[in-house]
Design goal:
Largest sheet: 8 strands, parallel, barrel
Strand order of the largest sheet: 1-2-3-4-5-6-7-8
Helix content: 40-55%
Structural class: alpha/beta
Radius of gyration: 17 Å
Order of helices and strands: HEHEHEEHEHHEHEHEHH
CATH class: Alpha Beta
């Protein structure tokens, strides 16, 4: 399958900047809040806006939120779906995502089959993606019936990631779950990056700039951020600060090549 416009943009940006920033928006929150965060991410220089949630979404709310966001900012929208209800024609692309360490085949191929024709009709670009749940897993691990990778076993995460690559996936995401005490260990990102070579993303759990730096220098190519911005007294200023730091850290990575 050929690379689409959004995936090509991600690769070009990573080559240029050394790191990617994804701003995550929960479409189930108030639309005006979503628009404020979308503007904050856009003005701060985010590469992508992500939309989705582990407990699923109301399709009407997702559709309206994505429509309003698209009318407000030009930053591309990628769907980070929790289930087949996480689709909207107003998105630019979709993580076509297999939960690699799920015990339930529904999350590996079932939801994909159920949504395939709808995705094709909508004309959404699909990005073949491996999602790997790392302990504790939190909500996404519970919903996805995952067998979370132990923190001290990076080789297990690397094995799942390599299997995904062999299946044709071109992005790998490590996810500890919303509310986890921190991101996956830097050495886990190092193992996974060495195994697959393609972009490796940390999904959330960043608590500080220090966490972000360790994650990116450890081997991750990008970070997905929500709560650090949404809980800030001044989301606009915080988005600029964090995104600037991500890009500065990316430049450090480029110098190490």
């Amino acid at each position: 399958m050929e690379l689409g416009k959004i995936e090509s943009m991600l690769l070009e940006t990573l080559e240029r900047d050394g790191a990617l920033f994804f701003g995550l928006i929960d479409p189930m929150q108030d639309i005006e809040q979503s628009l404020r965060f979308a503007r904050a991410f856009h003005e701060g220089g985010a590469d992508v806006l992500l939309m989705g949630g582990s407990l699923g979404v109301d399709p009407a709310s997702l559709n309206e939120t994505a429509k309003r966001v698209r009318e407000t900012v030009s930053t591309p929208i990628i769907l980070f779906p929790g289930n087949v209800d996480g689709l909207t024609q107003y998105a630019d692309a979709l993580y076509y995502m297999c939960l690699m360490n799920s015990n339930n085949p529904y999350w590996i191929t079932g939801a994909h089959a159920l949504s395939a024709f709808a995705i094709k009709r909508m004309g959404i670009e699909t990005i073949p993606t491996s999602l790997i749940i790392v302990e504790p897993g939190e909500t996404v691990g519970w919903v996805g019936d995952a067998k979370p990778v132990p923190l001290h076993k990076p080789e297990i995460a690397a094995a799942y990631a390599l299997a995904g690559k062999m299946m044709g996936h071109r992005i790998t995401i490590l996810e500890r779950g919303s509310g986890a005490p921190g991101p996956s260990p830097p050495e886990m990102f190092s193992w996974v990056k060495k195994a697959v070579g393609h972009p490796v993303i940390c999904a959330g759990s960043q608590k500080s700039l220090g966490d972000i730096e360790k994650t990116l220098l450890g081997g991750a190519d990008g970070v997905q951020v929500a709560s650090l911005i949404q809980k800030a007294d001044n989301p606009e200023a915080e988005a600029k600060r964090i995104i600037r730091f991500v890009k500065e850290t990316g430049k450090k990575k480029l110098k190490r090549r």
